[in-house]
Amino acid sequence: MKYGRKILWCAGALIPAAVFFADMMCGSSGISPAEVLKALAGRPTDGQTMSIVMDIRLPKALTALLAGIAVSVSGLLMQTLFQNPLAGPYVLGISSGASLGAALCVLGASSPLIGPDSFAGSVGIAGAAWLGAAAVLLCVAYASRRIGNAAIILILGMMLGSGIDALVQILQFLSDEQSLKSYVLWTMGSLGNVSWLRMGLLVPSVILGTGMAMACSKPLNLLLCGETYAATTGTDIRRTRALVYLATILLSGTVTAFCGPLGFIGLAVPHLTRFITRSADHSVLIPGTAICGGSLMLVCDMISKTAAIPINAVTALTGIPIIIIVLLSHGKLSRYA
Amino acid sequence: MLELRNLSAGYRGKALLSGLDITAGRGEMTALIGRNGCGKSTLIRTISGVLEAVSGEIFHDGIPVSGKSRLERARTMSYVGTGRPRAPYLKCREAVAMGRAPWTGWTGHLGEEDRKMVDKALLLTGMQGYSERDMDGLSDGECQKIMIARALAQDTPVMLLDEPTAFLDVPGKHQTMSILRRLATGEGKTILFSTHDVELAMSAADRVWIFNPPHIVDMDSGNLAWQEIRRVLRF
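Above: the input entities. Below: the structure tokens describing the complete assembly.
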């Protein structure tokens, strides 16, 4: 049984690896798979191929993988913490908060310090997004402490998100043409803007955030029965909540800052993972969600590259049907609220 | 033995119940009855440590509970509420195993001893056949039994139950009471449960605490008469 499970996990981990390489083969420049492999292996190829593979395709595929993991795991965390099946970084307005932070940075990027290509600039954008995400998360968290009703919290999150989007629109209206264009492109989402420099921030954020989530598996499981049950079995609710918030901010804040708001994947993937693993145990669901989320985002990236459409449109068109199928087929969702 | 000494309980520093000096014995079942909003849940939440006591102290076997760590407290008292877990694919066995949380490490991995306790809890509540079933598909009565099994797996000398029979039908109520009776008499547990069903309280419990805020009247269920209850609750 235990041995069989290990094999299953290894097989599961092969899926994102396979999709990762498939994604590396896709692109507009028509490089043959053999040449991609050659470049990856470090064999001599012509300089242009080398630079396309190593500086465009590899970071983009890596970003897709990491972004998929990040939004999906943070979605799972929020669904458990808020005891709300429709919670996710996008729906609760947390991505919007991160957007506002990033928008303030991108639109106000006249100073050379906040240019996208310096490490300080990357830290600046990510930091602003973290602050924005944290602000919205704290508002939603405070409201959910006061109001027990999950539906009202969702509506509040959406209102908050829309309100912030309106603020961002005002910012857009006031800004000059150049920064406006870069901002609009950012809102469409892009997995291609993460240079190796930014990767130095994205990789540790995702690893740290996912690691923190894994470390909280036990208290997260206990929270499935509600806070009173968790507290009376010795869970430190405050510490758990603080850790999970921190993980969420790291995961969804960083990704939103660098890739724009990637909608619906964070909401859909945890449900997909529960359906596939038939489990409610977070020590299974967190790695499972990471595998599914990473793979799905890579597939979205392949579609986006092949059809030449913005990634945000693909994630919405992929995520929304999954959510609708879950809502309709499950029938048990009413038990949540 | 659970002793409340000069205990005041309430929300945000405002005492709803005050000056409580009352004891629940080992192997005894105590029913908490009273009107809506009279503080039954507040008292249960205060004893369990979810709410902080406004003033006074709770002793278990002579040791003040406020001095215990979160974990020690969870090893002394377990709680059963009315809420259902809202988690798809949560197996009954997993829900019961959550009761082992105060006894397992940070990963929550179950050892041999833990698994035995889970089996025993399922057996004592008559739910051993439900082990691999999803919580989602259970009736309210079955769900309540699983949550009692969960508290049982927690292996605590004190069990606190907030309206454990609220959503149950008549057979369900009596089954739940006979499980609790078995635990009190057989396992020597101190059991406190709140209920709105006065007749059930009179027939099932050893003692009845009648809430008349800010006081509680402690009575032996054996010589408790309806008139007495009507007098205290004024109806």
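Note for the figure: The mean pLDDT of chain B is 91.
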